[in-house]
């Protein structure tokens, strides 16, 4: 069976639109059967064990199955810019990034393209692609989608955005986000195991769960960290991010139309340490800036 058959009745994410993308229909994410990419380049702003000195070979896919009101990549996720490419071209891009000495292939917002990505990885691996493959997802995949990736992904980077479903609905327009997330992370962990690193400290296998703290959401963020640590303990790394910048439609939501209070971020880190979290990453102050958003001009596509 070709993995592309998964596009016939699309349930790649929990929107479960059930549209036939092979016949030109589109669902919520607006992706059809063609791949659209807005940037494929070395990226230096991920966790140190992902970017390293050489950079992460990051492929930014256009479209998205969420619709976050504060999305920093809204030009590609919700305004849909990017360039259509074939599966063969995607496989070449993977190999070109490896040629550029990338530490890994970093697939950003890949959920709606999983079947095409698997086909492209098959081709590229046959032609010598050996660096680790990272799946950098917003966490609204279906379990079947993650299961289909078994054997193709080395490192999973799922978001865990909210603990309370009402915030997932308000800010990302999704239902059942929280109810779904731990089963996904559990499946990811089953596939790749606990984090392992090469001699340079670059991650080669494992799961890093990311949480972007929103301004004024210390109470919800604590519950997120609690839930991750209570469920998975030291078997996953937790990355607590402070780079929230009020942009896109944030001005329509006054409660989040501001930057993060650094004291709240410090409190969250103290809280994580107090409950026993040892394996993780925090960000320096000053990472909240629009300048950290890469330009999407089809570089490397
Ligand atoms: S990937 Fe797109 S079309 Fe498929 S279920 Fe999700 S939103 Fe709908």
Automatic annotation (TrEMBL):
<protein>
    <recommendedName>
        <fullName>Radical SAM core domain-containing protein</fullName>
    </recommendedName>
</protein>
<dbReference type="Pfam" id="PF04055">
    <property type="entry name" value="Radical_SAM"/>
</dbReference>
<dbReference type="InterPro" id="IPR016431">
    <property type="entry name" value="Pyrv-formate_lyase-activ_prd"/>
</dbReference>
<feature type="domain" description="Radical SAM core">
    <location>
        <begin position="60"/>
        <end position="179"/>
    </location>
</feature>
<keyword id="KW-0408">Iron</keyword>
<keyword id="KW-0479">Metal-binding</keyword>
<dbReference type="GO" id="GO:0046872">
    <property type="term" value="F:metal ion binding"/>
</dbReference>
<dbReference type="InterPro" id="IPR013785">
    <property type="entry name" value="Aldolase_TIM"/>
</dbReference>
<feature type="binding site">
    <location>
        <position position="64"/>
    </location>
    <ligand>
        <name>[4Fe-4S] cluster</name>
    </ligand>
</feature>
<dbReference type="InterPro" id="IPR040085">
    <property type="entry name" value="MJ0674-like"/>
</dbReference>
<keyword id="KW-0411">Iron-sulfur</keyword>
<keyword id="KW-0949">S-adenosyl-L-methionine</keyword>
<dbReference type="InterPro" id="IPR007197">
    <property type="entry name" value="rSAM"/>
</dbReference>
<dbReference type="GO" id="GO:0051536">
    <property type="term" value="F:iron-sulfur cluster binding"/>
</dbReference>
<feature type="binding site">
    <location>
        <position position="71"/>
    </location>
    <ligand>
        <name>[4Fe-4S] cluster</name>
    </ligand>
</feature>
<dbReference type="InterPro" id="IPR058240">
    <property type="entry name" value="rSAM_sf"/>
</dbReference>
<feature type="binding site">
    <location>
        <position position="68"/>
    </location>
    <ligand>
        <name>[4Fe-4S] cluster</name>
    </ligand>
</feature>
<dbReference type="GO" id="GO:0003824">
    <property type="term" value="F:catalytic activity"/>
</dbReference>
């Amino acid at each position: 069976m070709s993995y592309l058959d998964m596009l016939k009745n699309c349930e790649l994410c929990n929107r479960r639109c059930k549209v036939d993308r092979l016949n030109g229909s589109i669902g919520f994410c607006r992706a059809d059967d063609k791949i659209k990419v807005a940037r494929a380049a070395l990226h230096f702003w991920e966790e140190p064990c992902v970017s390293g000195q050489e950079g992460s070979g990051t492929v930014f896919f256009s479209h998205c199955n969420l619709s976050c009101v504060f999305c920093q990549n809204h030009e590609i996720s919700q305004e849909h810019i990017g360039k259509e490419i074939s599966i063969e071209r995607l496989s070449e891009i993977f190999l070109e990034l490896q040629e550029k000495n990338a530490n890994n292939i970093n697939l950003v917002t890949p959920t709606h393209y999983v079947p095409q990505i698997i086909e492209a990885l098959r081709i590229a691996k046959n032609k010598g692609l050996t660096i680790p493959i990272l799946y950098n997802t917003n966490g609204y995949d279906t379990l079947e989608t993650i299961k289909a990736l078994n054997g193709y992904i080395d490192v999973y980077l799922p978001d865990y955005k909210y603990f309370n479903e009402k915030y997932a609905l308000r800010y990302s327009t999704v239902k059942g986000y929280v109810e779904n997330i731990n089963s996904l992370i559990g499946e990811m962990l089953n596939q790749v195991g606990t984090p392992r690193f090469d001699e340079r400290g670059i991650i080669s296998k494992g799961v890093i769960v990311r949480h972007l703290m929103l301004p004024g959401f210390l109470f919800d963020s604590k519950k997120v960290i609690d839930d991750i640590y209570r469920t998975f303990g030291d078997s996953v790394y937790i990355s607590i991010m402070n780079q929230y910048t009020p942009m896109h439609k944030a001005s329509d939501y006054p409660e989040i139309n501001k930057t993060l209070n650094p004291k709240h971020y410090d409190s969250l880190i103290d809280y994580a340490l107090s409950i026993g979290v040892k394996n993780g990453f925090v960000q320096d102050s000053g990472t909240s800036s629009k300048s950290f958003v890469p330009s999407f001009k089809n570089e490397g596509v």
